[in-house]
UniProtKB/TrEMBL annotation:
UniProt key word Cell inner membrane: no
Species assigned in the record: Nocardiopsis composta
Similarity section: Belongs to the short-chain dehydrogenases/reductases (SDR) family.
Record SUPFAM superfamilies: NAD(P)-binding Rossmann-fold domains (SSF51735)
GO terms, molecular function: oxidoreductase activity
Protein name listed in UniProt: NAD(P)-dependent dehydrogenase (Short-subunit alcohol dehydrogenase family)
InterPro entries in the record: KR_dom, NAD(P)-bd_dom_sf, SDR_fam
UniProt KW keywords: Oxidoreductase
Keyword Oxidoreductase listed: yes
Region described as Disordered: 125-154
Residue span(s) of domain Ketoreductase: 2-200
Amino acid sequence: MSTVVMTGGTSGFGAIAAERLVRSGGARLILGARRPAPAGESVPLDLARLESVRTFAASLRDRLGGAPVHALVLNAGVIRPDATGRTADGFETTFAVNHLAHYLLLRLLLPALADRAAVVLTSSGTHDPATGAGPAPPRHADAGLLAHPDRDPGLDPRARTAGEQAYTASKLCTVLTARSLSAHPDARSRRLTVIAYDPGQVFGTGLAQNLSLPLRTAWSLLGTPVLGWPLRRFSATLNSRTAAGGALADLAAGRAAPPDGEIYAALRRGRLTWPAPSEKARDDGLAEALWNDSAGLVGLPD
């Protein structure tokens, strides 16, 4: 039986993916979550606290008893109305949850991954200005400034724009992390499959829970079949929760494999495609700097 470790599997399309992994693949699913999971085994994890990430990783190693992890799915994410939130570690909340906590978890669990294991990190097409997505595109992927935006001289004074850029920058960091991992000697020697997954825009999930009431209401309504289905007919980037969750499960289980040399999967009209990510996301120097700077922020060697 394969073992899958996952974050973001208790709601939205992540819950659909979790259920499919258990039902169709027969996997042992271990979910890091703040509340009991509808599928699989639930282990406490608060991504807003790096100490919780370390505790989760240690607990997981004890639970596995030396058995390998066949798939690591880093799917949890948040978006906030501003960039003023701070975690217990003093980092900007969106960047800390979406990138830093997952980076730390990845580094801690890397030795436990099986040969040919899959690592799937959920990103977003909003990392790429060329997609024309609604949120403000990222200006940079400087880990120090993203962790401490009050030190960023270019921080947008408009709260909503700053919050959007914190989100889109964190998703750029996700693709860059996948790029660095795919080139890591350990990943190469063990032939890990590394994928940054863009599910498209998926309404009706819990992503908008921290936003204003009008935005939360619109997000929820657009996720209903009555409004969602007509919209998806006219936009390739809009996907249902079922399609997004199914594709995520297929990537984790190895039922959908990337073409040689590709790490970026984008769900378009319910089908997986393999386009090039943004220009910044293809910058090897930027990826290396982010990997090393993130290590410093979470207290790990490069």
